[in-house]
Amino acid sequence: MKVETLPVTQGSYNLKDYEEAYKSFDWKDAEKVFSWAETGKVNMAYEAIDRHAESFRKNKVALFYRDEKRNEKYTFYEMKKWSNRAGNVLKEYGNVEKGDRVFIFMPRSPELYFSVLGAIKLGAIVGPLFEAFMEGAVKDRLEDSEAKVLITTPDLIGRVPVDELPHLKTIFIVGSDVEEAGPFVDFNKKMAEADNDLDIEWVDREDGMILHYTSGSTGRPKGVLHVHNAMIQHYHTARWVLDLQETDIYWCTADPGWVTGTSYGIFGPWLTGTSNVITGGRFKPENWYQTIEDFGITVWYSAPTAFRMLMSAGDELVKKFDLSSLRHILSVGEPLNPEVIRWGMKVFNKRIHDTWWMTETGAHVIANYPCMEIKPGSMGKPFPGIEVAIVDDQGNVLPPNRMGNLAIKKGWPSMMRQIWNNPEKYESYFLPGGWYISGDSAYMDEDGYIWFQGRVDDVIMTSGERVGPFEVESKLLEHPAIAEAGVIGKPDPVRGEIIKAFVALNEGYEPSEELKEEIRQFVKTGLAAHAAPREIEFKDKLPKTRSGKIMRRVLKAWELDLPAGDLSTMED
Ligand code: WTA
C-alpha cells in the first residue's frame, strides 16, 4: 500500500528526536519533575495550581472562561484561592473526607473547575457528569459510586432522584436564590463567606482522584478509577504531545464529563503552568473561529467530528477570521480521516495531529508527535516508555502489518487502577503476559506507525475479506455530498456480511437512487470493490456519543431490529 506522508511541524522544543527519546525515556526519571517523587506524599491540585501560584507564574492567567453571559479570567493565584474556598465549603457543609465520592453535574463554568480542584485538595474522588445526562444515567452513576456529595445547578436538580439515593447526603446548588433546606446548600453563598486558606490533604500517589463512567458494548456504564500518580503522564504528554510552552494559549474543546476534558482540559495544561481557555455554550462554527481569534489560541485540541462539522460549514467562513495564532492542532476520540487532515492543511495551513488513548489509559498512549512525519490515516507511534503491540487473542505479539488487538503492556503511570465495585471486570481487560487489551483492532507498519481498524466487534468480514469500517467511512466522507457516514456489517447468507452505509448529506444534496449508485462507484473506484457498500441508507443525522463517535452499534441495532443497549452516552 502506498502511504502519503506529511512533513514535521516546526517549532517544538520538547521532543526533537522521537527515536532517541524512545530509546532512553524512563518513567523513573520522568517523575522527578515533581518534588513528591522523593516524599511520596502528593496532591494533584497542589501541583496543578498552588505550585504555580507560589512561583513566577503567580499572576499568569490560568483560566480564561467565556460563554454567552460570562467573560472572566483567573490567575494561578486566584485559582488557588477559589479552589481553597471550594475545598473549605465542601469540607464544612458536606463533611467531605479523603476517599469520598464528590460528583459534579453541571455545565462548564468557573465554579465547576473550582469544585473539581477543591474536592481533590481534600483527597476526595471526583466524578464529573455530562450536563446532557437524563435521570437514569445520573442515578446509575451516583448509585454505583455511592456518591456522598453532589454539586449541580437549579436547572439540573430535577434529574437527580434524590429520594432514591441513600448515600447522597449533601447537594450543593450553584445558582442564585437557592432555598437551603434538607440536603440542599447554596454553593455561591458559602463560597462568598469561605476562607482563602485550606490545609491540603496530602495523599499517597496511588490514592483515587477521579472516577469517569464510560459505557462498554454491553452492560451498565462502568466506573474507571484514576489515581494521583497519573499526573506523571499527564505532565509529560502535555509537554511532548500537546507541546505546551510558557507562552501558549491552549484550548481543549472537550467537556470534563469526558476524560479528555479532565486529563487535557484540567490536569495536563495546568500541571505545565499553561493558560487554559474554557468555553461554555453550544457548538457553532462562527463562535469557534471567533474564540481562536479573540484569545489568540496557539494550541487547539479537538475531535474529528468537530473538525468535520467545521469542514461542512465551508471554507469561506474560515477566511473571515484571523487564525494566524494557531501553531499546533490535535485530535482525539475517533479516527482522524485523511480527508480532514487535508482540509486542515488547506484552511489552516497546519497538520492536525492525531492522538490515541482511552478513558482506561488515562492519558495519551499513541500520537503523531510534532517532530514526526505524519502518515495521514495513522494514529502515530507509542509514547516513549510505553510498550504497545498488536497481539492475538492469546497475547502473542504479531509481526508488522498483521491486524490484531491493540494492546499495551501493563504499568504505564496513568493506567486505570480499578473498575469501581467490579474487580472481575477490571481483570477481564488483561491477558496473561500483562497485556491490557484495548478492544480496538489495529496493525503496526514497518516504521512503527499504528493504523486503527475499528473496535474489535466492528470489523466486517465480507466474502472472506476483512474490511475496517473506518476505511470505508473515510472514503465516503471524501464524497462532496456526504457530511457524516457510519458503516456496519449486515449479516448476509451468501457473503457472511455485506457492507451497509448510513450517510447524512451536506446541505444542497438530495437523497436519490442515482446518488446511491454514484457513492457506491466512488468507493468502488476509490478504495476497493469489496469495500463498496452494497446498501446505502440516507439519514438526517447519525447517532453519536457525546465525544463524537458514530455509534455503529446503534446503527446495527436499527438495522437488525435489536435493542440498542445503553444510550446514556449518546448525544442529545
Ligand atoms: C477510540 C478516550 C481512532 C478508540 C479519549 C478507543 C480513537 C476509544 C482515537 C476510547 C483515535 C480514541 N483514532 N479511534 N485517535 N482515539 N479512539 O474512552 O476506539 O471515550 O478505544 O475516549 O475511542 O474512547 P474514550
UniProtKB/TrEMBL annotation:
Cellular compartments per GO CC: cytosol
Q: Which InterPro entries match?
A: AMP-bd_C (IPR025110), AMP-bd_C_sf (IPR045851), AMP-binding_CS (IPR020845), AMP-dep_synth/lig_dom (IPR000873), ANL_N_sf (IPR042099)
Give the Pfam families listed for this entry: AMP-binding (PF00501), AMP-binding_C (PF13193)
| MF terms (GO), sorted A to Z | acetate-CoA ligase activity; ATP binding
Q: Does the keyword Ribonucleoprotein apply?
A: no
Query: Mind listing the GO biological process terms from this record?
Result: acetyl-CoA biosynthetic process
The UniProt keywords, alphabetically, are:
Acetylation, ATP-binding, Ligase, Nucleotide-binding
List residues of the AMP-dependent synthetase/ligase domain: 50-419
Q: Which domain of life is it from?
A: Bacteria
EC number per UniProt: 6.2.1.1
Domain AMP-binding enzyme C-terminal, chain residue ranges per copy: 471-549
Family named by the database record: Belongs to the ATP-dependent AMP-binding enzyme family.
Q: What is this protein called?
A: acetate--CoA ligase
Q: Which organism is it from?
A: Siminovitchia fortis
What gene is it encoded by? acsA
